[in-house]
Amino acid sequence: MRRYAIPSIAALTASLTGCTDAIVGEWTCVQLDDEAMPYDYSYSYTSADESYAYTYNVHYGLELTVFSDLTGHLTYSFDVFESYSGPKSEDPYEFDYSGGYVLRTTIQKEGIRSYFIDIDDGDGELSCKLTRNVLDCEDDDGVVVEFQRGD
Question: Fewest 10 Å CB contacts: which of 2, 15, 45, 79?
Fold first, then answer.
Protein backbone atom coordinates (compact mmCIF):
# COMPACT_ATOMS: atom_id res chain seq x y z
CA MET A 1 0.00 0.00 0.00
CA ARG A 2 1.31 3.41 -0.95
CA ARG A 3 1.22 6.16 1.65
CA TYR A 4 0.64 9.81 0.85
CA ALA A 5 1.55 12.72 3.04
CA ILE A 6 -1.43 14.51 4.61
CA PRO A 7 -0.50 17.89 3.03
CA SER A 8 -0.57 16.26 -0.43
CA ILE A 9 -4.03 14.81 0.15
CA ALA A 10 -5.29 18.09 1.63
CA ALA A 11 -4.02 20.04 -1.38
CA LEU A 12 -5.60 17.54 -3.78
CA THR A 13 -8.91 17.66 -1.90
CA ALA A 14 -8.92 21.46 -1.88
CA SER A 15 -8.18 21.64 -5.59
CA LEU A 16 -10.88 19.08 -6.45
CA THR A 17 -13.56 20.67 -4.27
CA GLY A 18 -12.84 24.23 -5.37
CA CYS A 19 -11.84 25.43 -1.89
CA THR A 20 -9.97 28.69 -1.93
CA ASP A 21 -8.01 30.61 0.63
CA ALA A 22 -10.05 32.81 3.00
CA ILE A 23 -8.40 35.99 1.72
CA VAL A 24 -9.64 35.47 -1.86
CA GLY A 25 -12.23 38.04 -2.91
CA GLU A 26 -13.02 41.74 -3.02
CA TRP A 27 -11.97 43.99 -0.13
CA THR A 28 -12.88 47.64 0.50
CA CYS A 29 -10.70 49.90 2.63
CA VAL A 30 -12.73 51.29 5.58
CA GLN A 31 -9.87 52.83 7.58
CA LEU A 32 -6.58 54.32 6.43
CA ASP A 33 -4.52 55.27 9.47
CA ASP A 34 -6.78 57.77 11.29
CA GLU A 35 -9.13 58.46 8.34
CA ALA A 36 -12.42 56.69 7.67
CA MET A 37 -12.60 55.44 4.10
CA PRO A 38 -13.83 56.04 1.51
CA TYR A 39 -12.75 59.60 2.15
CA ASP A 40 -15.09 62.48 1.34
CA TYR A 41 -14.34 66.17 1.76
CA SER A 42 -16.38 69.20 0.74
CA TYR A 43 -15.68 72.88 1.04
CA SER A 44 -17.80 75.76 -0.12
CA TYR A 45 -17.45 79.50 0.30
CA THR A 46 -19.52 82.44 -0.89
CA SER A 47 -18.42 85.99 -0.22
CA ALA A 48 -20.61 88.17 2.01
CA ASP A 49 -21.73 90.29 -0.92
CA GLU A 50 -22.15 87.11 -3.04
CA SER A 51 -19.83 88.49 -5.71
CA TYR A 52 -17.89 85.24 -5.88
CA ALA A 53 -18.28 81.61 -4.86
CA TYR A 54 -15.93 78.66 -4.61
CA THR A 55 -16.77 74.95 -4.23
CA TYR A 56 -14.46 71.95 -3.84
CA ASN A 57 -15.48 68.29 -3.39
CA VAL A 58 -13.22 65.25 -3.31
CA HIS A 59 -13.91 61.52 -2.89
CA TYR A 60 -11.32 58.77 -2.90
CA GLY A 61 -11.25 55.09 -2.11
CA LEU A 62 -9.02 52.03 -1.98
CA GLU A 63 -9.97 48.49 -3.04
CA LEU A 64 -8.08 45.20 -2.86
CA THR A 65 -8.89 42.27 -5.13
CA VAL A 66 -7.34 38.86 -4.40
CA PHE A 67 -7.56 35.99 -6.90
CA SER A 68 -7.40 32.26 -6.11
CA ASP A 69 -3.74 32.07 -7.20
CA LEU A 70 -2.99 34.69 -4.48
CA THR A 71 -2.22 37.45 -6.95
CA GLY A 72 -4.37 40.51 -7.22
CA HIS A 73 -4.45 44.26 -7.42
CA LEU A 74 -4.80 47.32 -5.23
CA THR A 75 -6.94 50.04 -6.83
CA TYR A 76 -6.88 53.69 -5.78
CA SER A 77 -9.63 55.87 -7.26
CA PHE A 78 -10.64 59.50 -6.89
CA ASP A 79 -13.23 62.04 -8.03
CA VAL A 80 -12.70 65.79 -7.75
CA PHE A 81 -15.04 68.68 -8.52
CA GLU A 82 -14.03 72.31 -8.26
CA SER A 83 -15.88 75.45 -9.35
CA TYR A 84 -15.42 79.17 -9.10
CA SER A 85 -17.54 82.11 -10.12
CA GLY A 86 -16.44 85.65 -9.53
CA PRO A 87 -16.81 89.20 -10.63
CA LYS A 88 -17.56 89.81 -14.29
CA SER A 89 -13.90 90.64 -14.92
CA GLU A 90 -12.99 87.01 -14.16
CA ASP A 91 -14.05 83.94 -16.10
CA PRO A 92 -15.96 81.34 -14.07
CA TYR A 93 -14.76 77.78 -14.30
CA GLU A 94 -15.72 74.23 -13.40
CA PHE A 95 -13.22 71.46 -13.11
CA ASP A 96 -14.48 67.89 -12.77
CA TYR A 97 -12.17 64.90 -13.07
CA SER A 98 -11.80 61.30 -12.01
CA GLY A 99 -8.91 58.94 -12.05
CA GLY A 100 -6.91 56.38 -10.22
CA TYR A 101 -4.34 53.70 -10.65
CA VAL A 102 -3.99 49.96 -10.20
CA LEU A 103 -1.01 48.22 -8.60
CA ARG A 104 -0.43 44.49 -8.92
CA THR A 105 -0.07 42.50 -5.71
CA THR A 106 1.33 39.14 -4.70
CA ILE A 107 0.05 37.59 -1.49
CA GLN A 108 1.99 35.13 0.66
CA LYS A 109 0.33 33.17 3.42
CA GLU A 110 2.42 33.51 6.58
CA GLY A 111 0.24 31.50 8.97
CA ILE A 112 -3.34 30.32 9.44
CA ARG A 113 -4.77 33.85 9.21
CA SER A 114 -1.62 35.89 8.53
CA TYR A 115 -0.68 37.26 5.13
CA PHE A 116 2.05 39.32 3.55
CA ILE A 117 0.97 41.47 0.60
CA ASP A 118 3.76 42.61 -1.69
CA ILE A 119 2.74 45.61 -3.78
CA ASP A 120 4.62 45.38 -7.10
CA ASP A 121 6.59 48.20 -8.63
CA GLY A 122 8.36 48.79 -5.30
CA ASP A 123 5.37 50.55 -3.76
CA GLY A 124 5.60 48.73 -0.44
CA GLU A 125 4.24 45.80 1.43
CA LEU A 126 1.53 45.09 3.96
CA SER A 127 1.55 42.65 6.85
CA CYS A 128 -2.04 41.50 7.46
CA LYS A 129 -4.20 39.50 9.87
CA LEU A 130 -7.58 38.14 8.75
CA THR A 131 -10.45 37.89 11.24
CA ARG A 132 -13.75 36.81 9.67
CA ASN A 133 -14.57 39.58 7.18
CA VAL A 134 -11.93 42.09 8.35
CA LEU A 135 -8.39 42.28 7.03
CA ASP A 136 -6.18 44.38 9.34
CA CYS A 137 -2.92 45.45 7.71
CA GLU A 138 0.09 47.58 8.51
CA ASP A 139 2.75 48.89 6.16
CA ASP A 140 6.50 49.28 6.77
CA ASP A 141 5.98 52.78 8.20
CA GLY A 142 3.34 51.70 10.72
CA VAL A 143 0.38 53.03 8.72
CA VAL A 144 -2.70 50.95 9.55
CA VAL A 145 -5.04 49.91 6.72
CA GLU A 146 -8.30 48.08 7.47
CA PHE A 147 -10.28 46.32 4.75
CA GLN A 148 -13.73 44.76 4.95
CA ARG A 149 -14.92 42.03 2.65
CA GLY A 150 -16.86 43.58 -0.19
CA ASP A 151 -18.13 40.49 -2.03
Answer: 2
